[in-house]
# Entry
Amino acid sequence: MIAQAVGLSSFEITAGAHFWSSVSMIKEAMALADSGSVAVLGCGRCAEIPIRLLNQKFDRVDLVDIDRDALNFVRAGCEKWNDERNVYKFHHADLTGVIATVERRAGELVANTVDPIECSEQLGILLERTTPKFWKPAHSRRYDLLVCSGVLTQLQALVRERVEKIYFGKFADYAPSLSQHKSWCESAWHFARNLEDRFIEHLSKLTKPQGIVYLSDTVHVSWLNQLDHKSVSTEGRWIALRTERLADYLRTSDSIVHEQRWDWLREEGEGDYWGRLYGVQAVIYRNS
Ligand SMILES: C[S@@+](CC[C@H](N)C(=O)[O-])C[C@H]1O[C@@H](n2cnc3c(N)ncnc32)[C@H](O)[C@@H]1O
# Structure
């Protein structure tokens, strides 16, 4: 693949542009939803989510993440604002519902397997056989609005990372080559796509009939090398999901209200790389 040069000043692709694109789409989704309840799944630090606006409109704002520090960060922000109205509820939870079990079983497999290749194959089988038990709120609550910003690609990534960490704990020398083991890669791919499909299916059960879902993610990723202080180059872009279009995951019965795409440049030194260019996609749809 031929490297492509990109002028850093030629695009409106900064983190700020990403933030405003996200906020604008979420505001549009909010305007379409009834004001009962909203859940933000994988809320992280709410860096791209206007939670104060959610707090103003909805009677209940559920914030869910596996990262306790991120939830504490958001909670501290909410306390600092000291808004008259405060309807946030924080949920420290694994949205997939399988991480603890997969970690335990991966630990047993790694402990009992001598051959690293066989072990990676067994771990792949473990992933493929894992059935998600997605997070549900108490009392089978169904939401008027769901916000899933940047979480779809991360669900499988986190499970895979946890398994790889256990594997590398014993087979450290295999760290560089695991991503080239065919059977491990195929199993991880099938696990990821299956988890994504089921997660989208699950969203339909968390949302009220005719409720609204805002789904966005970094569908394309390009790793960037710095050429000089004004330009970077990339060898191409990778698709993080099954297809080029996020909305391909939706069911035919879901009605798409608005689809949007934008670029997001992140300077975050990563090994030899200067940063990443994400191709973000967002879709607002109405649950059938
Ligand atoms: C890219 S970040 C989302 C950023 C967020 N939308 C924001 O505005 O800052 C993905 C989030 O998903 C969370 N996540 C990933 N896997 C998860 C899981 N299994 N359960 C709960 N949260 C998860 C991560 O902890 C992280 O906070």
Residues 42-49, 65-67, 70, 94-96, 149-151, 154-155, 158 surround S-adenosylmethionine (CB under 6 Å). The two ends are 42 Å apart (CA to CA). The helical segments are 15-32, 51-57, 68-81, 99-112, 116-129, 152-170, 182-206. The first strand starts at residue 4 and ends at 7.
